[in-house]
Amino acid sequence: MAKDLVVPLAPNVWRIPLVRDLVNGFALRDDDGQVTLVDMGISRSGPKVLAALAAIGSSPSDVTRLVLTHAHPDHAGGAAHVARATGRGFTVHHDDAAYASEGTSPPRDRSFLLGRLFDRMARPGRDFEPVVVEREMTDGEVLPIAGGVRVVHTPGHSPGHVSLLHEETRILITGDAIFNVLGLRWPVKAFCTDFRMTQQTAHVLGELDYDLAAFTHGAELRSRPREAIRRFLLSHPAR
């Protein structure tokens, strides 16, 4: 297994570093060999996702599910490439489904100048290549992935942003609710649809049970991650 292409998190669960540790996707494999891929990185990350698939001994034909935590170009940029290779559509939360289908980022937080500028530049199909959404997920449902992945709707970064809890291995994928880049931190304010809501909904991550926190931006936390996230949330309350 090429360790630079994947980072094992638990049996049959891997982090895929797509831009070093700064942008990550994930792979989960069922006991029968079916593979689910979560987040596809930036526009040039598609081939890297497929290389990671080969590194874990699987092929595009083994992929039965593609999931996006949200419809931003650093997560959906490589999505169309992976969809063509696997012949699969995407599972996206209902509130981000239309954006993924159009290749357009959701609105940015217009209380910030940079957010207003990003909104002015947004054009359908130009943020990332549109993808086919074949399934819309909802808060609290358990996706039939590797023993069960619970959907935790954490809107604010985008309307349909989700975190994912793999209950069997007790791994939490935070999505962009919280970054782990030079320590725990909030996502960039202007990249959020509603930054204050991002802060508010992230507090649910301190109430879940997990033994490892995996981030779409930054390396995982393996030692007492729930306590670390709780400390962060207490010291960085919504304002």
From TrEMBL:
Domain Metallo-beta-lactamase intervals: 22-217
Name the record gives this protein: Metallo-beta-lactamase domain-containing protein
Matches recorded under SMART domains: Lactamase_B
Domain of life: Bacteria
